[in-house]
Design goal:
Blueprint (H helix, E strand, L loop, with lengths): L5 E6 L2 E6 L18 H10 L2 H7 L7 E5 L4 E7 L29 H5 L4 H17 L4 E2 L23 H16 L4 E2 L17 E3 L2 H8 L1 H8 L5 E3 L4 E2 L2 E2 L4 H11 L5 E3 L8 H6 L26 H8 L5 H17 L14 H14 L1 E5 L12 E5 L24 H9 L4 E5 L23 H27 L2 E7 L30 H11 L3 E6 L15 E6 L5 H9 L21 H4 L8 E3 L8 H6 L17 E11 L2 E10 L5 E11 L10 E10 L4 E9 L5 E2 L6 E2 L4 E7 L5 E8 L1
Parallel strand pairs: 2-23, 4-5, 5-6, 7-9, 7-18, 8-11, 13-14, 13-15, 15-16, 16-17
Antiparallel strand pairs: 1-2, 3-4, 9-10, 12-17, 19-20, 20-23, 21-22, 21-26, 24-25, 26-27
This protein binds alpha-D-glucopyranose (GLC).
Length: about 750
Amino acid sequence: MKCKLLIFAVLAGSIIFISCDSSREQASDAKDFPNVSEAKIDSLINLMTLDEKLVLIHAGSSFTSGGIPRLNIPELVKSDGPHGVRHEDGRGWAALDDADDEATYLPVVICLASTWNKDLGYEYGVVLGNEAKERGKHVLLGPGINIIRSPLNGRNFEYLSEDPFLTGVMAVGYVKGLQEQGVAACPKHFAANNQETDRHNIDVLVSKRALHEIYFPAFRAVVQDGGAWSIMGAYNKINGQYTTHHEYLNNVVLKGEWGFDGAVISDWGSVKDTREALLYGTDIEMGTELLRDFNNPEYDEFYLARPAKEMIESGEIDESYVDDKVRRVLRLLQRTTAMGEHGPGKRNVEEHQQLALEVAREGIVLLKNDGLLPLDKREIKTLAVIGHNATRLFAERGGSSQVNALYEITPLEGIKNLLGDDVEVMYAEGYEPYYDESLFRGEGGDAASQSTENRQEVELARSANKGLMDEAVALAEKADAVIFVGGWIHGHEGMPWGEGTYDAEARDKLNLKLIFGQEELIRKINSVNDRAAVVLMGGSNVEMNNWLPDTPAYLHAWYPGMEGGRAIAEILFGEINPSGKLPMTFADSHEEYPSHSIGEFPGDGTVDYAEDIYVGYRYFDTHEKQVAFPFGFGLSYTSFAFSDLKVTHRDDKVVVQCTVTNTGDRDGAEVAQVYIHPKNPSVDRPVRELKGFEKVELAPGASATVTIELDKTAFKFYHPEELKWVLESGSYEVQVGNSSRDIELREEVML
Ligand code: GLC
């Protein structure tokens, strides 16, 4: 049963919403799927030779594994990525030129998280499941659900939040929507893969409490509530052992405590040891560092190929370890369209593009508005659109999550389409990106040394940008209003993988400073025109102190997908009322984040998560630190009030009920966020933790009663010494508000 908002009664203009908050009620038990037959699996295993079993557990091309024609077992076909089905590469690594592989390019997953809309999470998965199925893929390598520990991680755009609960709830919907089409989700990367620097070897030093309270919960949710059929291991180590074959992670927690019955798929090249992979839970080895010739791979070189065969045949390791892997792989094949019947898929259909638009409309976050927005096109004769990102395309970059988008509406196109001939729209690029080696970390994590040649190129680029800036400022001066579109990019076309990338896989940023001279450009625009709105793209925040105070309005658009330009225009001109809420804290600079001020980032060989459980608002709120914009924050063109909080016990649940009222003059949506504050815990705990939320849409003057049920797990903590989950009796405060800092209602409850 997909849990939607159930409308029970419309009484005198108030609508009563009941929602089952923890996605437990939504769980569709994966074992219910009709195609899995354990008996058939047993008989197939009995028919297989050892060689055939090993074929099933390692790659046979860039994205396929297995395939035993003698037994009618097909290959398992995987594809990236988390926000769209990647271009076709056949069985190699380069995109096939003439492939029919255009696809729906959805807003990136952090934009989905910013909607705080569970139904959109599910619909997002439905779209991806249909497109992957239509392309003949059995496993979609997503969603990325690693916690945003530092704002510098180049892959933050592929993840959801600094908070494990929000990540889990949104990812569960995605997984269920995807798998109901017969395509396996592969939530990644298990676990604590929170940086790109030295990702293949970095050893994360982290407490069991922080693992269980911060880095595990979203994985537990997608397994136990979402029924994920596969999980992807990570490249990094945790406390000395590689995560892809980590005894505690895979055998004790994932397959033991959580009862995961699917397959652990390695990240590409994340298997480093045959014995450990056999014993500690790797079920399919994809990619390998062992290849002598990347372009002419001999798959027998894989750790789980000949070396594994030798270990089994010598008797060093029992064949039953291989049988368990084969069982899980066959279960995965049977659940998906590989061996199960799930009907046809569809790709590039209008309903998919509509969903992309909905997610962008609800995920873009209005962070500042002095009253400039929404712009009224009747009051504007000339509009200056300034900024390289107003015309840049993003889909094909970012790393493995790249998509060959069927189309991508840029902000400039979206604005022009919306305004038609009513307004004269003028464009100036304002700045041209350039490859500046000093912007990047080298493999070791420190600032890369900048070659003389590159320094000269950068100087040339900067002087060229002076000209572009002057043109843009002149345009801004004579326009009635200005829209600046800037922020990050995924890196430079034509650069080898990893090089020249930021806000992309394989690289972390050095800091949050706006690049390519954008700060100065924004300041100059503000100095000549007091009606300038700033729109930024990017997978996390940027430093704002040098430009935001004099900027009347600021929208954070993440990477809003193929319909993003249209959604940006609709919000700027008031056709859509924004309702996005930050899924991560925006602080003034990266040094403010606990992963930098208390813990290490990016470390050197090892990285110490010394901040422990105090990640994101858990740190900023507990230590009452000033932040630019708090977790859960987002503005609207209307206003809302919270009232009538009631907290009661019903069976073994705590029921939180409150009223949300639209006190403004236009339709809008608000997110009621429920935090738990332990009054006098026996161990140190964060001042508050998000444990429930519900988004409600309301007409002007209307009210809604929101009911959120919390089960007891919402009050538990993982005991740092006893190393188990504990529910402590005592007094707790239930807090309801529309950000972690804007608590509107409080009520005490005794447990
Ligand atoms: C990459 C990424 C992973 C991706 C895989 C296949 O290295 O870490 O997210 O799915 O390899 O491209």
